[in-house]
Design brief:
heterodimer; A: 306 residues; alpha+beta; Thrombin, subunit H; six-stranded antiparallel beta barrel; 30% helix; globular; B: 176 residues; mainly alpha; 6 helices
Chain lengths: 306, 176
Amino acid sequence: MALAPLGREPPPLFRQGPSALSKLIFYSALALFLMVADVRFQMMQPLRTVLATVIYPFQWLAMRPVLLVQEVDSWAISLGETEQDREILRTKLTLQSQRALQVDQLTLENRRLRDLLELKGRPGVAGIAAQAIYDAADPYSRKIILDKGSLQGLALGAPVIDDLGVLGQITRLYPLTSEVTLITDHDHATPVLNARTGARGVAYGENSIHADAIELRFMAANADVAVGDLLTTSGVDGVYPPGLPVARVEKVERSTTDVFARIYCMPLALVAGAGHVLVLAPLSPAIEPRPASEPLAVVSKPRGRR
Amino acid sequence: MIMRPGQQLLLQANPFFIWATLFAALFANMLFNMLLWGRSAWVPDILSVVLVFWTVNQTLRVGVTAAFIFGLFMDVYQGGLLGQHAMAYTVLSFLAIMIHRRLLWFSLSSQALQVLPLFAVVHVVEIVLTLLLGGSWPSWVVIFAPLFEAMLWPVLSVVLLAPQRRAPDPDENRPL
């Protein structure tokens, strides 16, 4: 067996390839190009899909221990805990059954009233159950990965909920997995409705006050918002169906120096430990496209671009 | 070639082993994320340590190109910005090539001190890129990540070099 000095072959004398510095410049430029293309033009999805397929076997393998731990965990709860859970669930069921019985009747009544007023019916939604496998490792955003993808019929932009409220929406779709941007993500905005006052607003992800909160922005400093108000989806965005619970107002700061009040809310859904979730069908196809804007009758003075 | 005092003659590195360890490091990162610590910012990035190790020890095989490709894998896995880790790892591997001739002359502990700035640069590049493109500030615990990575350096150096330290002619007394 040949022994190479120092465990590596001697460097070639002539054909050394491009220098490290030129490689650094080339690949940095390529990485910058990829980032810009990804952020500004959203054209890197095919490349992402290919790379995601390459690493999927590793992901699948890493999922096994995770699923095993979950399985063992669910087996190893004590009899007492199960009894307790059963009691809680039974109470919940009793409370809900009365409402559930009314829902059919109310839906019928609602449809008739809407027919009477010649309003469009609310689009019905179907759902696919999925499981959250892990939190995306990126500490700069709030995303989770689901174990189902486009092959199982999920679609881009589909809202994701759990049994307590809205979790977020699907923002990236791979063949076998999909990525959900949570409502607590820095870049995610949820159109909400204050269930007490009926005022509409927009809630943004906000991680500065504590890890997983959302902030109701652009509400006037004297707006009628109180601690404990329930925020539900307003349904004006074409993503979330109306009436799903989103968050509860936790803290309202009104200061005389600001035009807007700072309103912090706690999401109702388990954003930090999402397990089983329901992916609803995206609403956008069921909503009519915006009418083309008509030219204004009043001719205003043409204004040059800044 | 000049040899360091007390340096051991090593076997040839097995290319299959090199690439397997790189993928294993990617896998370890996934396990840390899925099973143990979620998206905490202080979790050490094993892949960057292994990349620096092979860039220093096998400069002809593992270099800037490999770092760039593994960076892309990390980006897709994390669901972040495509090119963020690729950029950081490219810079990392360039710096590793810059120091590869002198690094191995030092003891393992001082090597760890010398690679610490490299790992810090990776995190600085990532944070700067995220902030530039409108992301959020992770958390100050991110300063622990390069420290942990530097602490892993001596351990991984011993483990990854072990196959090359085997005897060239194994017999009954030296089975390995």
